[in-house]
Design a protein that fits this description.
2 domains, alpha/beta
Length: 223
Amino acid sequence: MEIGIQSMDDSVLEASSREHTRVDVIRACALVKESGMRLGVQIMPGLPGEDIRSFKQTVADVIKLKPDTARIYPTVVLADTRLEELYLSGKYLPLSLDEAVRRALYASIMLEGEGCTILRMGLPPSPGLKIIAGPYHESFGFLVRSLGYCMMAQQIVDELGTGCELSVHSRAIPELIGYRRSTLKALRFSFSFDDTLPRGYIRAYVSRESACIQLQDILEYIL
């Protein structure tokens, strides 16, 4: 069963006109777990009243609920909603695309580190979806994963220098190269694949030196 948590901050939930509280979420998730069903959750970075501290606390609180799966949907402004009214009156400012990508990356690393599977990041394309403002991108999930690999690659290149060879799992090569090959163009490395490496790891080689980095190593630099 999937529950739309959205936030674990009561002030954010109230500002967003959500009709549940943090305590309601905890009780609902406990009931799902006690029933033996798998627990899925949804969180929405960038709701009204949320700041980085609030968002980090939401992620920490969600982890305590021990979800099996999660979806991360950054808040966008849809037409004919209360949020559109707040946006047009200047009372709500959505996250930029970069801010949303970074919050989603932070949450995904934290949740996956606790064994939670991320099912989706970003709203799926829909013909009837009329977005007025906010961090919508058809390849949002790929942008998030690519940023993670870019940050890891940057740390390795800073340590070993340009021209090093970066090796990742074969399925992670597109994320290493980056959206429209942006990471490859910026950092100038060669690459290979090694399917003995877990997803979320990079191993680097240059001359006789080597280094290894994983997503957990970049957490403190994301937000």
